[in-house]
Specification:
mainly alpha, 0% strand
Length: 50
């Protein structure tokens, strides 16, 4: 709850903010990796002759 957050000490607020930023960065990295894998698996799979 916002009121509980406002009553936290500065260090705990900083920890929460940093944790959220790390999570967002990890999600972005995961999304980029998924997009790269999707592009790779889509390339060359159709119409490829041997």
């Amino acid at each position: 709850m916002p009121s509980q957050y406002l009553n936290l000490p500065k260090l705990e607020k900083a920890f929460i903010i940093a944790s959220i930023q790390v999570k967002i960065d990890a999600e972005k990295k995961s999304e980029q990796k998924a997009k790269q894998n999707a592009k790779r698996s889509g390339k060359g799979s159709r119409g490829r002759k041997r």
